[in-house]
Fold:
Amino acid sequence: MTVRKARGAWLLGGGAIGVCLSFVALLVVGTYSAAAGMLGGGGGKNGTVALAKGAVPAAYQALVQKWGNLCPALNPALLAAQLYQESGWNPTIVSPANARGIAQFIPGTWAAHGIDGDGDGDRDVWDPKDAIPSAASYDCELAGYVKKVPGDNTNNMLAAYNAGAYRVIRSGGVPQIRETQHYVKIIRSLEKSFARPVGRVDPSRQAAGAIYYAQQKLGTPYLWGGTGTAAQGGRFDCSGLTQAAYQSVGIELPRVANDQYNAGPHPSRDELLPGDLVFFSDDLTNSRAIRHVGIYVGGGYMIDAPRTGAVIRFDRIDTPDYFGATRVTEDGAAALPTHLPQQA
Structure:
């Protein structure tokens, strides 16, 4: 959603218009073929889970990587997913239920389970160096409580986090509570966004439709805050365009670019497929600093709404501020928090 620096002249000039439109039309048709060729190439889950590039803010990355390996039921990407879902990486927020800090501990839970993670002699719920280790420690404590319960220990741990270990034990697994089942699904979906892929990322089945939508908007003037409404003259900013493109194929993305980054797993640069969202930032260590997004169409180009005074157009992605990419999934988009607690 943030204004982005100019990236050179618009490619759709003169006779190039027909060539570029034909190029995108072929990509739309060929997306499924490319996707089919990449299915079945995924890697295993053995070994330590690494975090996706920049998915965790640099200030917390080492903490999450270290404490995310505290017990077998936990991994760094899962811990990151919980922290993002709880607070959006904001260490100063308070929920309506008086849950506090980056890990959203309520006072009673913190008193019982908070630890001195940095060894400085205190347990400070507002200090991520205490709160992140405490979140990991609490997860592993719950995993221990439910280790003899049938089913996946990680799912049972998450269910215990949401509903209490007693209910998981009594139910013989994740209880038939809608909120709890939803919580487990959300965290396991977000986990895929925060983990660095081990192998090929499965292709998106909705990519062709999203590209087609964006193609129809080529030449539309940029509008800061634009989401394509009639009152706005059908104009978009960068994340408004990507949101609308995926909305056209039934996937609801968040409004701003840095939240859209968490809507699925992250293919590497040489594994990009048409339809992937591509992101740009002046801080290549922190996804929360992302300021621009476009839809990849192949050949090193994207369709994007670049800046005030420009139009929706083709731009190259190979620039110094290229941050990374996301392959949008329905589950990944649905898992993203729609609101977060307020800052204290």
The CA atoms of residues 25 and 199 lie 29 Å apart.
